[in-house]
Task: structure prediction
Amino acid sequence: MSIDINSDLGEAFGPYVIADDEALMGVITSANVACGYHAGDPVVMDRTIRLAKEHGVDLGAHIGYPDRMGFGRRHIQMELSELEKHVLYQLGALDGLARPAGHRITHMNPHGALGNLACADRAVADALVRATRDFDPDIALLVLTGTQLEFAARDAGMRTVNLFLADRAYTIDGQLASRSVPGAVIKDEASVYARVTRLLNDGTVLTIDGQILSVEVQSILVHSDTPHSLEVARGIRQAIGAAGSAVRAISAHQAGS
Result:
């Protein structure tokens, strides 16, 4: 089995720096780049794209609500047709900067409140899938196991990559536990490694209330704004190797599947 390691990058804005993107590029295999809505700007996007290209890292679009003040973690009510246009706009922005850099978009990963809603609401999931397919049907969608986004993408014939968030707690229905719930964000490095090791060994994870949830995994996410994210990413690489799996990017995994 091969596993991709991805991270949400390019989330700086102007002189404001969120994470050490360059250092993380040396450890991960796929990058989800903010497209200027919840974070990022054209200069930051261009720099991140070129870093990904330089390090041989896959390029993904990290699509979110237009909510810089809330970092894309607040829901914005909009019609589904309007939402599709916002998704297309962000894909186009990233693609427009990627082409001169000689890179291409391999995957899309919805961010924050939009991603959470797409996991639970089939109509929203369908809108994201339609927009992505209309832009480029070869773009893969990163999905959580058993969610509406996974079902919508597969029903539309889109390629999916099952994602596991190493530092986020889950509920028994496969959704992420709300950040407002104590323990929803896992900051202890040893706990993160233990979760990854368990998942790779038996395909399960303990939910926030102690139940056992089966989870498919092809890619593991490291949040770049998590404390010690670089060390966490390195530890996850070691855990993957210890479990007898190889670390490979999304595009390489698809090519070999």
In short: Residues 80-98 form the longest helix (19 residues). The chain is about 40% helix and 20% strand. Residues 121 and 148 are 6 Å apart (CA to CA). The chain has a mean pLDDT of 94.
